[in-house]
Amino acid sequence: MSATLHDVARLAGVSIKTVSNVINDYPHIRPTTKARVEQAIAELGYTPNLTARSLRSGRTGAIALAVPDLGLAYFAELAASVIAAAEAAGVVVLVEQTGADPARERELLRSPRLKLTDGLIFSPLGMGQEDADALAVDYPMVLLGERIFDGPTDHVTMRNVEAARAATEFLLASGRRRIAVVGAHAGEVIGSAALRLQGYREALAAAGIPYDDDIVGYTTLWHRANGADSMRELLARGVEFDAVFGLNDTLALGAMRVLQEAGRSIPDEVAVVGFDGLDEAEYSIPSLTTVDPGRDWIARTAVSTLLERIAGKVTGEPRLLLADFRILARESAPRPAALAGADAAAAPGDTAVAGLRS
Amino acid sequence: MSATLHDVARLAGVSIKTVSNVINDYPHIRPTTKARVEQAIAELGYTPNLTARSLRSGRTGAIALAVPDLGLAYFAELAASVIAAAEAAGVVVLVEQTGADPARERELLRSPRLKLTDGLIFSPLGMGQEDADALAVDYPMVLLGERIFDGPTDHVTMRNVEAARAATEFLLASGRRRIAVVGAHAGEVIGSAALRLQGYREALAAAGIPYDDDIVGYTTLWHRANGADSMRELLARGVEFDAVFGLNDTLALGAMRVLQEAGRSIPDEVAVVGFDGLDEAEYSIPSLTTVDPGRDWIARTAVSTLLERIAGKVTGEPRLLLADFRILARESAPRPAALAGADAAAAPGDTAVAGLRS
DNA sequence: TTGAAAGCGCTAACAC
DNA sequence: GTGTTAGCGCTTTCAA
User: Fold this and answer.
1) A294 partner at 20 to 30 Å CA-CA among A98, B170, B202, B306?
2) A4: Cβ under 7 Å from strand D?
């Protein structure tokens, strides 16, 4: 089978310690010895056995990422970013799907399979604030999302309230006054839906516009079908609105479809804004104005934060790290003239409107 | 730190072998002994150290999945299916992204990081037939996709030619005669684009319709923008067509957008069919008729085949395993009456039209 | 600058 | 039925 340190040492005529030193770039090795060892390594095609190294060192060089489902575009793109960031740091990513099931999420936290990794980036969708204690695990962990706050671990997330408020203000600045919402969750206090709805309400309040629950569509899930169903229900009820704020892009795309079927022109009759900055929002018809909540920054920061904890470089209190956001103005809700000055660097064809320091 | 077998053995007053026996469900243990050990395990919160077990047993309980990019919907959905299938089998999945770069793909095959896994499910997009030899690795591997055939490993893939031919025949049966293609690759012989184009040509030939390269759009990538660009170019050239076959769903969705911008009604003036059976094809406007190439079966089969090789249950020649496909008829190209009898079980709202035994 | 040897936590012969 | 023991391949004191 595969060659071991002993094989290399024997061939090079040195001890395994010397070979180990060469592999680990220990500085004080005589160049001739080093050359001889490297020659032997090449000759045998030796690669270190990472399992053995892990057992000895206590580090695996792998991290785990737990998301609800890679079939959900947001989490697929998040995972892509996390894996890319991890690779740049030389670690590998083990991906788990929890199906947004709180029981499976809790179970995952205690799973022995995590022993194969040095730490976990955890994006729960089923667990809630009442499960905060379950996050007190004995391995490094970084929490994502907005299901649980003030937990015992580092937490990297987005500015939901501010970003949703900015999206709403964007519509208000466009002259819209009856802004429907798609994707609210009844009774939720924290969680993406509640926080984004709060931002929406803050913007309305600041503009002196009363909140009207009649134009708020409630859904349980955030799939495209839910956005479509919710919009159908709004139309069926005959309520009036001149804009729609989809609490995520998928909902907004579903709602947009139904609006078009119903013959409402976008953005003339109804402007539509989503949330998530999904790649596909750029290619819908019409292209979807959306809030990029800083997904890529979140991924990179989650990885670097986790690796710092693993390395023991940071040992203080759990930190809350918040990403910048920006509004990507597209066809479904063009940038109002009033916000023209707020332009900033953005993807070609996009117009960045707002951003906060993290 | 974490408790070990020794700790448990000491607490239970037995040897570590007995503890090991209990953990591994060795049958011949006295019930009282077993109970005592289990009590000690619970008391200490013992979980086995999988790294140590791996070193000893030579198995890690993890497999690797290498795909181009999780940002591509097809691969995200494939990964979701693979992870689900692996979890059902009790193994965990380490996901690598190669960016479809042939150099990175070749490098990955020799990466020591794979030592952390028992085998690899590899979906190359950059490597080609000329790299077949590079697939001769010394660990179990299952190949996906259609970049390389007759390689030294098991290969699980779809019936590209037959499925594309069926999609084209579906359009022909609808009375379409000028079927444009979006996403062809110039000079390619194998690979998804070439095989699907071949199926298209076979269908035309069987129907006695001459192939016309003027209505075949060539692209390098298969993103939505490429489908849009390709369609724009077709429209600009003023060529006539009454249907479009997108060589994947993403291309078809991009093309559909441009058709709508140009005022061509779908499916009346132009029928559109995609390929991949992506979830999002069901929610576009109009919903997209597409070929489900059996992605879920491919994922499950890849996992089970790999695990069989790992277990050494199978040792024969490399196998080629082909998935069934079916056409999901939707709004962009309704099922022609001539194919009405071919209906079969399918997702609600879908109409399955064709399928082959694997 | 290099070597010898212990041991990470577990499994699996082999003994009793 | 249960205990002893020898490693899996590596890192890491400690000596030389």
Assistant:
1) A98
2) yes
Any alpha helices (H) in chain B, and if so which ranges?
5-12, 16-23, 31-44, 50-57, 73-88, 102-109, 160-173, 192-206, 224-237, 249-261, 295-311
Contact between the CB of B357 and strand D at under 7 Å:
no
- pLDDT tens track of chain A, all 358 residues? 578 888 888 888 888 888 888 888 877 788 888 888 888 888 888 888 889 888 888 889 999 999 999 999 999 999 999 999 999 999 999 999 999 999 999 999 998 888 899 999 999 999 999 999 999 998 999 999 999 999 999 999 999 999 999 999 999 999 999 999 999 998 888 889 999 999 999 999 999 999 999 999 999 989 989 999 999 999 999 999 999 999 999 999 999 989 998 999 999 999 999 999 998 898 888 899 999 999 999 999 999 999 999 988 877 899 999 999 999 999 999 999 887 755 443 333 344 443 333 3
Do B62 and A260 count as a contact with CB atoms less than 8 A apart? no
Do strands B92-97 and A92-97 pair parallel, antiparallel, or not at all (unpaired)?
antiparallel
Please tell me which residue of chain A has the smallest CA distance to B229.
Answer: A283
Same domain, A147 and A168: no
Peptide linkage before A152 cis (omega within 30 of 0): no
- Looking at the fold, whether A261 and A348 belong to one and the same domain comes out as yes
CA separation for the pair A178, B169 (Å, rounded):
48
CB-CB contact of B200 with B164 (8 Å): yes
A254 contacts in B (CB within 8 Å)?
283
- Cα angle B174, B176, B177 (rounded to 5 degrees) comes to 145
Q: Are residues A288 and A171 in the same domain?
A: yes
* Total domains present in chain B: 2
Q: Is residue A2 part of a domain?
A: no
**Which domain covers residue A115, as residue numbers?**
62-158+296-322
Task: Give the residue whose CA sits closest to C9 at C1'.
Answer: B52
- Residues of chain B found within 8 Å of residue A60, distances taken between Cβ atoms: 51, 116
Contacts of A272 (CB under 8 A, 6+ apart): A243, A244, A246, A252, A255, A256, A259, A266, A288, A289, A332, A333
pTM of the model: 0.92
Which nucleotides in chain C lie less than 7 Å from some protein C-beta?
Answer: 1-5, 7-13
- Provide the residue type at A60 as one letter: T
Do the Cβ atoms of B54 and A51 come within 8 Å?
yes
Residues B208 and B349 in one domain: yes
Chain B nearest-CA distance from A14, in A, is 23
Q: Which residue is nearest to nucleotide D3 (CA to C1')?
A: B15
Calculate the angstrom distance between C1' of D14 and CA of A88. 37
Instruction: Single out the residue of B53, B42, B62 nearest to residue B310, CA to CA.
Output: B62
Chain B 234..273 CB hits on strand C (< 7 A): none
